Structures are given as C-alpha cells and as structure tokens.
Amino acid sequence: MTVFLVGAGCGSPRWLTQEARELLERANHLVYDRLTHPDALLLAPRGCRFHPVGKREGDHLSPQEATNALLVRLGREGGTVVRLKGGDPFVFGRGGEEARACEAAGVPWRGVPGITAAFGGFLGEGISLTHRGLAASVTLATGHRGQGDEETYWEELACTSGSLVLYMGASAFGDIADRLVRLGRSPHTPAAAVTWGGWGRSRVLRGTLASLGERARRGDVPSPSVILLGEAARETLHPFRGPLRGLQVAVCRPMPEAARTARFLEGRGADAFSLPLLDLEPLEFREREEAVRALEEADWTVLTSPRGPGALRRLLRDLRRLRGRLAALGPGTAGACEALGLVPDLVADPPDSEGLASALGRTLRPGDRVVFLRNERASSLPVEAARKAGASVTCLSAYRMVPREIPWMDLIREHWDAAPPHAAAFGSAATAEAWKAALGDLPPGTVPVAWGRVCAAACEDLFRRPVRTLPSPDLEGLAATLEELAMERHHDASPDSGEEGGRA
C-alpha cells in the first residue's frame, strides 16, 4: 500500500533508473502522463491497470486535484501504485503536491528521481549547464509564476548569474524576454531552447535573449521546451547522435523482440515505439506422450523462432532427454537456445524460412527423423525441404500468435501527432496483418519495412504502398534500411539555419 512518485526521465526508457524499472515491473496501478515514453509502460506486468492523466497545453485532460485524488484512492486500495512522470516529478512536476496529498490522506509514498529535461535535454545537444569559465552555477525556474510577488520573482531572475533554465515558458517567452530586458538583463545574453530534449526528435534553437524572444512571439519555440540563458548557451560541442537521428519508427514485433529492436534503434538516434500487437498463446498437445516420444527419438529437432526453445522446455521439461541434433532458424533462435543451455548444431544463414529450408536440404539424409516445433502458422518451406531430402517429418504446433491489446495506444498516437512515424518495421506477415486489423492503414507518409519477402508481399497487399525489404533479416539489416531512409529524408529536407547560429 504505497504510492511511488517515479521519474521516467526525458526520452528513451533506457533513461529509467534501476529502481524505477523494478517498480514498474511489479506495479498494480500505473498512472502516467503524456511526456512519458510509451515503451516504459511495457515493463508493467500483466494485470496492471493503466490510468492516463497527462495534460497538454490548453487542454487539461485531468486537473491536478483529480490526479491527487486518484493517487489517494488507489493508494488506499493497496498494492503498488506507480505515478510515472516525464523527467523528474519533483522538478516542476508537481510531485510535491502529490506527495502532500498522500500524506494528508495517510497514504505512504516514496519519490524516485528521474533525469530532468534541463540536464538530459541540453546534454543531448552538447550544451553543458556548468562549464569552467562560462557558468559556475545553475538556476532552475518556471516560466509560469502562479503565486507570490510576481515582479520580485522576475527581478531576481533578471540578475541571476551562471546558467538560468526556464521550464514551461515556451509559449510566453516573448513576454518573458521583454520583462527580463526591462529589469536589467542584457538583450544580448546568449540563449538556447531545446524542444523534446532527450528524444531523437529533439531540436535546439540558438540566439540571444532578444532574438529567441522574437522567435517565441512568432510561435517558433514550441512546447515542450526548456530555455537556457547564459554563457553556457554558447557551447558548440557536437555529441554523436547516430545515423538515425530524428527518425520516428514504429516497431511491430512480438515481445520481447519489439522492445529490444526499439532500444537498438534508439542507440542509433531514432525515436522508436514498440507495438507488440501479437502475443504468444501456448497450445496444448492432444497426444502429449507421443509428442515427447517423437522429440526423444528425433535425429533433428528444428526450432523456427526465438519462442521455440521455451515451448521445447515446456513440453520436454528435462532437456537431457533431447538426444538428437538441434537446428535453429537464426541467431535470435540460437541465442534463446543457448539461454537454456542448448547449443544448436545448425543455424540457418540467412535467418529466414528460405535460409532454413536451404540449410536443411543440404544437411538432412534420407531416413532422418525430424521434428519441427513451431508456430501454428509457420512457413511450410523448411518442412517441404526436409521431406524432399527424404526425412521422416513430424510437425508439432506448440503455440500461436494472438491479438494483443495496447491500453496506451492513445499515448502513442499523441506522440505521433507531434512527430508522425517515418517507418513501420514489421517482423512478419502476421504482424502486418495485426496492424491492419487493429489500427487500419498506416499513417500518411509512413514507409513499411519488411523483415523478408513473404512479409513484404503481405505489406504491399495490405497497405498498397512501396515497401522496403531488409537486405538481411536481422537488426543490422533493419539499421541499414532505415539509414538509407534517413539519408533520403535529410537530402530532401530544406535546411533550417535557425537564428544566430541555431540548428534544427
């Protein structure tokens, strides 16, 4: 019976602290806002209940008082309640108000810090808030002063030395700049604004207090932005951002491959969103003893996906009874085997159904007893190749993929409203079909990227637009395809030089 006020950091779930991750993994209730990365919600266990309470500018979906009341009610019900907030909940995140509401109601709470936008956002753009000879202090302030002596507040900020970072001031920064200048701040003070700091789509605008204020009046400093005033804003360091910087990618694969793929792409600079629209459903074997006997007597056991080793363990239990040789579809399946202490004797290259069929055709001998442990809808090509080689084949359908609901799909769509996906990566024809059934057509301009030729044919049929097919069905092939797409986008984009050295 505890409410945890948890910072999600700014951007990728890789920025979560270890404690935040552990709390998410055992949450009974998850209360989240719109600046949270949707993939962080994937860490919650089955049965967790999700409560969106995010706000957007001019649209108070859930007033703070209602959020406080929700946390108190859930806290009283018991279990683990995680209030997940972008950045740090206690740095202009109203975490203090939520903590006070819990205390007043006698509900235990604890805070878990996150990487706030000022630190993560500016660092991502190569701007250090403290720097020898430039800034020896940092002041974090809000651009919305809700109470107290308004004029005194701004007078103090106008004469602040070091780095001054303003939160929640983008929409009003034109007026704020005028006020600071009137109160004595030089209009030539270096300034920088970072929008969506920490994300792949982050953007920095550079200038002076006066010029950035003018841009804000024209609507060129969008929310959510943090604004830096001071000599540190002159920094011109250029950290590595990766070849996929700014690319928005939807990853449509089952878990855990979806999240692993998304984090891989983020490491190369993209914003990636996992859409595990299919989930594994184990199948019961009508003749279990016969299935076990077939595996024990097999010369070859063939696993056609990374979910195969788990199905093998579920069926056989004691893996020492598997005395024949083992074939795996590719490195992913081989890795799942090795996690169980099994080393495949044959790993298909390329890692797809055609590659597996070719490898089996070269390896099997007439009379070999071969058992395929596979998806109910697995490709028939490897089975046909085994039979053509003269093997005796048994096919065991161990699982099927079934539709999976994504309760936070509205949050994903909200992110896509701000930055539509440039590409949607599909791991199989079944995932493309699942997208079409659950979400309809792809967003305008989104390029479907297919893991193989069968998947590509399904994408062309479903979405009626050109499809990119991976040169190799693995993460490196995906990265290569998306890098080509990113280079084409950068080549077609018109440059935005910003103002006084700004870049976008």
TrEMBL record:
Domain Tetrapyrrole biosynthesis uroporphyrinogen III synthase as annotated: residue spans: 261-479
User: Mind telling me what this protein is named?
Assistant: uroporphyrinogen-III C-methyltransferase
The biological processes this protein is annotated with in GO are:
methylation; siroheme biosynthetic process
Domain Tetrapyrrole methylase span(s) in chain numbering: 2-212
- Enzyme Commission code(s) on record: 2.1.1.107
Organism, scientific name: Aminomonas paucivorans DSM 12260
What is the top-level taxon of the source organism?
Answer: Bacteria
Q: What class of enzyme is it?
A: transferase
Give a yes or no for keyword S-adenosyl-L-methionine in this entry.
Answer: yes
Any one Pfam family match given in the protein's UniProt record, by short name:
HEM4
SUPFAM superfamilies tied to this protein: HemD-like, Tetrapyrrole methylase
Keywords from the UniProt entry: Lyase, Methyltransferase, Porphyrin biosynthesis, S-adenosyl-L-methionine, Transferase
- Which Gene Ontology molecular function entries are recorded, alphabetically? uroporphyrin-III C-methyltransferase activity; uroporphyrinogen-III synthase activity
